Amino acid sequence: MKLNAITLDCPDPLALAAFYQQATGLRPHPKSDAEFAGLTCEDGMFIGFQRVDDCRAAHWPDQSVPQRIHLDFAVEDLDEAETRLLELGAGKPVNQPGKDRWLVLTDPAGHPFWSKPQRTGRDRSVR
Question: Which residues fall within 8 angstroms of residue 70, CB to CB, at 6 or more apart?
Answer without folding.
Answer: 111, 112, 113, 114
